[in-house]
């Protein structure tokens, strides 16, 4: 059970899927993976650089679940040559299509979820289609306990923060303007660095979407004027 999988379960169980941008969630999932890799001693941070740990530490146990193997894939993709990769570069590279990879994980645990996604390939998975499993209980328990890292990642992805109740009750307003000071109470400088980078990347992606929308609207106006 990984933080990335817990995050995806929270997004679906809060019924926030339709309102969450997949790009934002992909960045948050990549941040979740990096925090788990650091906690496991597989990676570390030197300033803003991701420094891999010993290669032997990343081999998954034979009994590991699919989501653990995804985390192993993340570990195996760490840039091992100096000057190594920045946290920001990691988020953009690893986050590409990461939502689809973790949705596939959920499909392996729930045939109903797989059938739902086959009909509508988006985040709009009915919570009732998720397997009622220990993995789901674990994610919901972390969310109900307002676990700081999970709450911060969910907020970055577009799900309300720690005052939004349990996963079944819904979600709140998004706060995409968080910075390092907002995470100071975590007491973990590495997690703070990753979370701040996730929020900065989400804000940057929002800016890109806004510029594209303005450009598209301007182009449409030109055609209407002809």
UniProtKB/TrEMBL annotation:
Keyword set, alphabetical order: Golgi apparatus, Lipid-binding, Membrane
Biased composition, class Basic and acidic residues, residue ranges: 161-182
Membrane topology: Peripheral membrane protein
Record organism: Streptomyces chlorus
Database matches in InterPro entries: GPP34-like, GPP34-like_sf
Main localization of the protein described in the UniProt heading: Golgi
The name this protein goes by in its record: GPP34 family phosphoprotein
Region (Disordered): 159-182
Superkingdom: Bacteria
Keyword Coiled coil: no
